[in-house]
Amino acid sequence: MHLSSEGTTTATGVFAAQLRSAGARIQAGGAETAAGNMLKQRGLPNATGTFNADTPVGLVSQYSVGSKFSAPGSLNVRVMESGLRVLPAAGDFLMGPIGNTKLKDSDPTPCYSGRQVEDLTLDFPANRNLVRLPQDADVKTANLHYASHWSVNGQTLSVHREFTSNIDQPLCSGDIRKETMAALARIRDDYGSPVSFVVKSGFVPVTASFLPSDKFDVSRRCAHHAKRSGNVRCRSAYRLANAQPGQDAERGFCCPGVRISLTQGQRIDDAFRYHQHVVARAESSHSRREDHVFPGATTARRHLYTTV
User: Fold this and answer.
1) Which H or E element spans position 51?
2) CATH of 75-201+287-308, one of 3.40.50.2300, 2.60.120.1130, 3.30.360.10, 3.30.70.1230
């Protein structure tokens, strides 16, 4: 059980020159050595990988570098796997660095017009469920636009990120810099969107019903469980107190594997007892932790960088 990744980075314009330079360094030092050094920096010393970089010849308008790696054992996946990056992420560099939090909004930074596109996919094992789909992001100022869109199809999680900048001056300063810095902070937060999976419990989802008079009682029980278990997401993720008969609330109580379909008719006691059983089972195996071990995943990556 291991994590494997394969991807391609394609660049045009100024980015093509940067990528050609990176390709030349990869070839000079060795494709496997370059990948190994990058994997060690990522905290994956036992992983093996390589690059596929063609020898740069003459001036070309487009250049590509392929990469892949494989990591043995089981890994914790907390954010979307990005593979071996050889150019900045979408949203980074063009209007300033998103990773340098020491810069102030009064510090001028170089700015460029351009476009970055990134498509990432992650195929997770059949015995895992995605806890929740991350929210899309849309960040816009007068000089930049960043958008991300998440989707899941079967056992494949995908995210499309796109960043476009349009600036008529070499430095971002003053109000433009302040506005840009706030936007870059939101983009940085989007890259930190948690991705978590749980082992399938083997139980079929529960469909239960409730009477309007049960709403307060069930909400009180759920809040009690949140306080006892430390799961503060219980009350925010499942607000039964505001539910109405016939309303679908598939998030369940505090635990994946329990689905509650709220329809009028019978009490919800049986479903709550079932929920307690699943939670106890999950707590004993640590499978409901969001940072659980996540084996057997494969990822794919495609980057496109252009300048205008």
Assistant:
1) strand 48-53
2) 2.60.120.1130
